[in-house]
Every structure is written in C-alpha cells, then in structure tokens.
Design a protein that fits this description.
Blueprint lengths: L2 H10 L2 H23 L6 H21 L2 H5 L3 H4 L2 H21 L4 H28 L6 H20 L1 H7 L5 H23 L8 H47 L10 E8 L7 E7 L4 E9 L3 H18 L6 H12 L8 E9 L4 E7 L4 E5 L4 E5 L2 E2 L13 E4 L5 E5 L1 H4 L10 H11 L5 H15 L10 E8 L1
Parallel strand pairs: 5-8
Antiparallel strand pairs: 1-11, 2-3, 3-4, 4-5, 5-9, 6-7, 6-10, 10-11
Length: 476
C-alpha cells in the first residue's frame, strides 16, 4: 500500500473528528466575526465573544486529537501541539465560566467570576508544570471539579425561576435549560469519573453532541439578547432624535434684528441633547436682554431642566430690564425642581438708546467686554450663587457703557475649559486674545474664529467634552 493510500485509510477513520473540530472552529470564528461587526450592540455581545472563543478552543482541541492531521503538520507546528492541547484542556472551563458570567448579575456574577479566576490559576499552574515535567494531567482533577461546580451552579440557576428573576438577565430560560440538561447529564458524569481518577472514557461523539446542544442554546439566548439590545438602542436613538428636535425648537430660531446691534449665536451640544440654553428678550428696537444658562451634567436630565428654564423665562420676562430681579425670580421658580442639580446663568440687558448695559450672573463664567474706544478687553464678573443652592442669595448688577464698536461675549464653560495636549485650559485669556486680535471682523466671523481656534486647541482625537454656547453682541 502506497503512502497516499495509507494516509487515506488513516483519515477515513478520523473523518468525524476532523468534521467535528472544523465545525466548532467555524462556528467560533463566525461568532467572533458577528461580535466584531456588531460591537456596538451592548453588553450582550460580550457573551457572543466568549462563546466564540469557547467554541474555537473546543474545535482546536478536537483537531489536536486527530493523529493523522498532527502527523502531516510542519515540524515546528507539530512540536507545539502538546502545549496547545494542554493549555486548551485547562482553559476551556475559563471560557465556559466567562460565557455563563454574562448571563447573570449581582452576587452570582461575582461567584462565577471567582470560579473563572480559580480556573485560570489552575490552568497557569498546570501548563507551567507541563513545561517543566512533561506531565499533562497532574491538576486535571481540580479542573474537573471546577467544571462540575460551574455546571451545577448553572443547572440550579436555570432550574429555579426565583434565582433567574433575582440574578439573571434571561428571557429564554427554557431553551438554555434544555441545552444545559443535555450537556450536564453527560458532562457531569465525565467530570465526576475523572475526579475519582478512574480514567473512564466516554465516546467523544456523544461529547460533541452534548457540547453542540449547550452551545446552540447559549448562542440562541445570546443572540436574542443582542437583538433585544439593538431594538432598545434603536428606540433610544429615535427618542433622542425627537428630543433633539424638541430641544432645538426651544432655542431661538433667528437672532433679533436691531438697528444698532449685531448678534451672532453658536450652539454645539456634546450629545444628542444638552444642558445649555440661551434666550433673547427683545423689548423694542433699542432694548434687549440676553440670557445664557448651563445645567450641571449632560444628557437627558440636563436637557429636561433646560426645557424648564425655557418655560420659566416666559414667566419672568416682565423683569427683562432688571437683571437682578430676573435672576432672582428664575432662581425661585427653578430651585425647587432641580433635585440636586445646579444651573449657572448670566443675563445682559442692553439699551442702545441710553448707551448702557447692565449685567448680572449666577455662578457663571465672566462676561467679556471689548471697549472699542481704547482697544481693551474687560473681564466682567458679577456673580450671585448658582441656581439650586439651598440658601437665599442676591445677584449684584454691574452697569457697563455700550458705545459704538463695543462687543460683549456671553458663553458657557464648554468654551473656556477644554484643554490642550499638555493640560492647559483654553481659558478666558485665550478668548480675550481672540477678541483683541479681531477688532474689525463681524460678530458672525468672530464667533467662527473662537470655535475654530477652540477646535485646533484640543488634541485631534479628543471628543467634545461639554456643550458649547457662545453669544457675540456688537454695538454699531
């Protein structure tokens, strides 16, 4: 018989082994590919990752048992097989425990994490012992006991509905219970037999079928979780898109057109919805108020408070000409409903006919005032306490001149606080420099200059860290 015939005869006797190992590797790699493609699908995808690793390891282990395949490997690979086989033998329980860990919460999750850690320590010791002595199964008894422990905990968890309700995140407990029952009947028996050192061998074909049943049930449960997470994320994204539309609807759609003022406003939320808010309170062609606020935190809760401010402003508009009274009334309306959050605010009232302005703030970054007459920038601070503090406060008012060519900048701390690569904040000084270096550009252009230089100040890979709001007012 020639060499090819001998090889064919050897392979025909191990065809099931080759098919089984290859199938589990393909399933494992497919799971990892799905996890990579849909990596933004939530925590459920981690279970798919561990499942893919578990299946791939099992498939590789089966192929290492195929003597014919091992024989035809290159010599350098052939010498690696015992190490790969030993490592996988001990690490399979770690992958299994991590897969199970993704299905539970609370104390049970911590317990399973502990089992996985113990399994990893046993694997490291066993592989190290094998490298030193060449003995593969010195610690296999402990590995089998850990396997039995994981399987018993899993079976009890799935069998008792109260435990699943308390510690589980499963919607298809019955499917997984069926797969685990099929697997445990065989696997627990094998683990106990090995733990007694009886060396009993069970047909590996039945092992593969049991493992396939467990793997299929886990895959079904994990993928259902992933699809449920994706549906929930899709719903949240749709809700956020609607919330974003609603929030933009509460902001001014245009800037007021006054004969002696030019106004530019920029608003860039960090997320879909934001806690920054601004409003214009025009009274006539010569008088107008500018309100800007910044809610602590980000996201939906901050956006809801910003919406509350919009409603509250309508009820205090009668005090538009008096910054202190307007802020005091806003504080009284909002503070009872802020529930531990805080709001900074700044209000500027301008009367171009009288040629003056009045400014007051509640814990807000300073107003910048460009004096055209002497080409200087003044940092104006006139703060009372933040909205939401549990005590009464007064809001001092600063009177400012408003001459032709003067400019006023109102902004939130998202403009002044971003840091560069060495941790240096953009700050009011940088803003003052930009205003000083651009005395003749329009209000719109000055606003663009600030945002452009702010973007270049931060490292390219750094995402936006806060909501950005800027109002530039220029007296003509």
């Amino acid at each position: 018989m020639d060499m090819d015939s001998q090889l064919q005869t050897m392979l025909s006797g191990q065809v099931f082994l080759l098919f089984s190992g290859t199938s589990f590797i393909i399933v494992g790699l497919a799971s990892l590919a799905v996890a990579a493609i849909r990596r933004n699908s939530g925590a459920g995808m981690r279970a798919v990752v561990f499942l893919g690793i578990w299946s791939t390891m099992y498939g590789v282990q089966r192929l290492t048992e195929c003597s014919t395949l091992v024989t035809i490997l290159p010599q350098w690979l052939h010498s690696c097989v015992p190490y790969v086989e030993t490592s996988i033998t001990y690490l399979l329980i770690v992958a299994a425990a991590l897969s199970f860990r993704e299905l539970v919460v609370g104390k049970l999750r911590r317990f399973v994490s502990g089992l996985a850690l113990i399994g990893l320590l046993v694997a490291l010791l066993a592989v190290g012992w094998f490298v030193v002595t060449g003995e593969k199964y010195t610690l296999i008894r402990y590995n089998n006991l850990i396997s039995a422990g994981v399987l018993i905990v899993l079976l009890v968890f799935l069998s008792v509905p109260a435990l699943n309700r308390k510690y589980g995140v499963l919607q298809y407990r019955g499917v997984l219970l069926m797969g685990c029952t099929i697997f445990c009947v065989e696997a627990l028996y094998v683990s106990l037999v090995h733990s007694r050192g009886m060396g009993h061998e069970i047909g590996r074909g039945w092992d593969d079928l049991g493992f396939a049943a467990l793997l299929s049930s886990l895959a079904y449960v994990d993928l259902q979780r992933v699809y449920a997470n994706e549906r929930r994320l899709s719903t949240i994204e749709n809700d956020l898109a609607i919330a974003r539309q609603v929030q933009f609807s509460i902001l001014p759609t245009t800037t007021p057109q006054l004969s002696r003022l030019r106004i530019a406003a920029a608003y860039e939320p960090m997320t879909a919805v934001a806690g920054d808010f601004y409003e214009f309170l025009p009274v006539d062609e010569h008088r107008i108020g500018f309100l800007i606020t910044d809610v602590s935190g980000h996201g939906v809760s901050a956006a809801l408070i910003a919406s509350m401010i919009k409603v509250a402003v309508q009820s205090v508009a009668a005090h538009a000409a008096d910054p202190a009274e307007l802020l005091r009334h806003l504080q009284g309306i909002l503070s009872a409903d802020l529930r531990g959050q805080f709001v900074s605010a700044a209000y500027l009232w301008i009367d171009t006919e009288a040629g003056n302005a009045f400014y007051s703030a509640a814990g807000h970054p300073p107003l910048l005032h460009w004096h055209a007459a002497n080409s200087s920038v003044e940092r104006v601070t006139s703060n009372g306490a933040l909205f939401g503090v549990p005590f009464e406060t007064e809001y001092p008012v600063r009177e400012l001149p408003c001459s032709a060519g003067d400019r006023f900048l109102l902004y939130t701390d998202g403009i002044s606080e971003p840091e560069n690569e060495v941790g240096e904040a953009f700050g009011e000084s940088k803003l003052e420099q930009i205003v000083h270096d651009n005395p003749s550009v329009s209000a719109d252009e000055l606003s663009r200059q600030v945002l452009t230089q702010l973007a270049s100040w931060q490292p390219t890979a750094t995402p936006q860290q806060d909501d950005l709001t800027l109002i530039v007012i220029e007296a003509l």
